[in-house]
Amino acid sequence: MEKIVEIIEGLSSSDSHVRNECENTLNYYKKNDLNNTVLSILKLLKSHKDSQVRLQCAILIRNIFRAYIKTSNVETGGEKENNENSLGNGEEENYWDLLPENLKNIVKSELISNISTETDKMVRSNLCNNIIDLSSKLLINKQWPELLSVTLGFCNSNNNDVLISGFKILGGILSCIPNELELKRELVSSVCMKGLNSSDVQVRGECINLISCIVEDNSPILVKSVQPYIPQILQSLSLMVKNSSSDISVLEECEKVLQAIGKMIDYNAKFFTKHISTLCDILFSICMKGENELNYDFDSSLKSLSIEALITIPERRPKMALSVPHFVDKIIHLSMLFMLDINNDSFNEWMNSIKEGKDDNQELYDIGEESLDRVGKAFSEIEEAEFIHILYNKVSEFLMKNTWEHKYVAIMAIAQTIEYLPEDEIEDQLEHVIKMLLQVLLDQDVRVRYAACQAIGQISLDHQPYVQKEYPRQIITALITTMNDVHLRVQSHATAAFVNYAEELDKMALLPFADMIIDILLQKLNSSNYLLVREQAVTAIAVIAGVIEEDFLKYYATVVPMMKDIIQKAVSEEERTCRGKAIECISIIGLSVGKEIFLEDAKECMNALLQISSTKMDPDDTVKEYIQEAIGRICRALGNDFFPYLSSIVPTILSLLSVLPKPLTDDEEDLTITMVSNGQYVGLKTSLLEDQEKALDLLIIIIEVLKENYKDYIEATATAVLPMLNYELSDEIKQKALTAVSELIEAARILSEKTDNNKTMLHAILTAAAEKVLKSLSETKLDDNYEYILDVMIIESNGLYMCLQKAGANVLPDNTLKLFFNQIFKLLQCSTDRRLIYNQKKNNDDVDEDELLIIDREEELEQNYRTNLLDILGVLIKYHSTQFLNTCCDICITFINTYLNSPNSEDVALALYVCDDLLEFLQENSVCLWEYFMNPLLLNINHTDDKVKQAACYGVIQATKIEAFSKYANIAVDYLLKLIHQNTSNKKPKEFISAIDNAVAALGDIVLMHTSKFNNAEELIKLWLNNLPIKEDDAEGRRVHKNLIDLVSQNHPLLFGKDNSNTAKIIEIFLTIYETDFSDADCNKKIASLINSLDQSYLSNLASSALTNKQAKKLNNIVNTSRK
Hints:
With about 1100 residues, this protein is mainly α. The chain has 56 helices and 3 strands.
């Protein structure tokens, strides 16, 4: 035993040689005399007088059984052992399983008995942790049956130290024995009551932590048993807060309680439903003193934890948050008060320094800024929250204050939340915001100017391309001025704002300023010693090149040598980013000016990049990422001339991608971990995951560009990438792997078409990918995490669609095609069956508004997934139409008949969408199937459900293209008119508007394609025009509006009406959709050309008499642009 004491003392030595000697000795004893070693440690743990020795003994126990504890954590879903108290390295033996049964019982017994006798708090805490860690597996396997009754005994002790230990152990083990605890719920409830009524603050704190564990575990029976104690929890919190200023131990418990409350809100905010207002009042009072200042009576940690709990309420249950009087107003005001807590000295020091990152001391400011963002996101889809309106009122108040701090906070609040501005308010609100920001760019205080640059940059990202189209001259000229600000940090930030703004600028808007801006940026590169200014200047040059494209040629000879010089010379650690940006810049320039100009420089760049890549680089060296992205751009610039570099790049990528997740067997840090279908945990270094994601990005570009010229690497790439379709660790990697496979499939298809038409390799890759995806989709089980799993299913189904789309026609043999059809229909059946789950959730007795929001999101995701499955059916029909009619048609018709006759409207809509696919992709060949569905399709135009209406109308659009539909034309128009005439109210659901959109589109198509069937065609066309433009379905809108502009160009005899009476309406339609999602670039160009061909006096009269302000503004912009 003395030897063990020596080892323990040696392990704490400052001499590394002594520590290593003791570790080796300990390892020897564990391997050669395990039983006596454990007994000796247990004896010292029980009886040694020195509490530090006892503490080290408790840690040693944990260390000896570390391997067993780790497997327990993995098997029970606990956190991975972080090994912070580990003594020794290397792979550990599972010493627990090597102990004889009687010694295992001694260990358990001694740990329990020491709880009652141990006097040191730290030792006792470690004893509790040891019991919890060892028990995880033992309780599940019924190997520690007495632990629960012993723990409950501790929880009834009159000794506060034992009581605290009991609460801690019970909280740690309850997830392992939920059924046993539910049977003892009355006992659990009584011990919680005992703890909350204790006069000891630490007992109350640990009791509240136990309750938070119960809430987190979410056993309805146990949660219900402790819910009546919320008033005592809140009373205890209030008392602790009050006394926290004068007693450090109370402060520590108060922090623990706030963390526990935050955890309860995070996992089950509904727990607090009846007391949410009281809880919020307490949390707000911790943070605020009166209405306009933070409460500095309490420690900052309490304010931080309180605002975190407050933010989490709307994140988890926004409707519940709105039930608290003035919650939105208070949380916005509080967040901005936090932001006002700016440390003047450290902030000013940062503003005047050359450091890139902000000062770490701005803790409360950063919390407030993050809070605004999170609350804005939480309420972004809750219209009645009026988050933006309340925020902007508060911003106006702050802007009227005459201090730089208030102005700074107001502007940064806008920057932080501008993305949540509702779409229908963008035009009105942004005009005021932009005007204000351009004014404060001239403010006398440097910090305010800096904030204005930040806000302009953020708006440029969040509301592109609107701000680029509406305010190019005002914003560019203001930023040019600010780039020459006397303050270097403002110069840098103005340049960064320009980068954000210019990326989405129209070429013609930027060209007039290009000379001036390039001149400013080159001056900064040549003269500024401020690295951040130079970095932003390089990026700004790159953006200009990307926007003005071939017009950058005039700067090429000056800029490219400068970039090469930076790449060669900027090799120090602090210059990494600048070097990376120069690499980025030269690759963007090359892509902009074209291969003919760039070819020789591209070769030089590629050789340099490959040489840099071959040198050893730090894992966090940002240059690595810049190099990969630059290689991708150079590949796009060179096209097939990039081929010589494949041998240097592709093998490295494939080698990296071949490293797959592995079972957890070691103590590596920085691991991303997940549980796979067999219950085993696997992991991979997070940095390696990130490298794989970037490698896939580059690989996708290379295959996309090289296509059939990638032939030498297709099979090897498929071998490396196909296993990643089952990637468990990262959905992003799974998604990118599917994209890479789809590009491989296209390359293999083009190769077969251009050579011997042998589709063996194409078929092999396609079927391997399809089988993996279909197997994954069919085996997926939805658990409580519905949204996440549905997201993954959407990724997989969309990936399969891309693969089939790029494979082209007649790749799949009959048996495989039939198998795929059967599987897709089964997946559709499973998806519709899940409707029962959603209905059960909705009909739950205690379901509330927040839960209904979650169910709505889940149903929307389910609908997106079904849409992807329908897309897969469509592409299979499209590319295998003859095979489909011969081998799969019966399966499809059976599905249609079953679902068309369902009483559920969603089933009917699903059947109609399948009919739509038949009409769209079989076209004339679908006529033989019309007897099964055409009459029901037409009847469902006037179904009571909007989704059914929309599906039926879309089917008519597809059928109209087929000559045989002419006999249905009149009856179809009658049904469509009946639906269109229902469109009398401005406020209609989106689904109804989509149905009307498709009905209007179908009406126009029928009348224009089957004109001879109508005596009133001119009247019907007028009605069609009066219901345009398309308002909700942007894809259908682009088609219809493109058709309309083409009809105008052809001077279609039906279009303009008698005496050109329809002309004004046609112009209104075009001005409404111009440069929106309902028009494309070609349509915009034709609209501008049409407008400019019209008489200017006619347009002026139209603008003053018939157009809205928005339409008139667009008209003015089109006319002015043409004059330039």
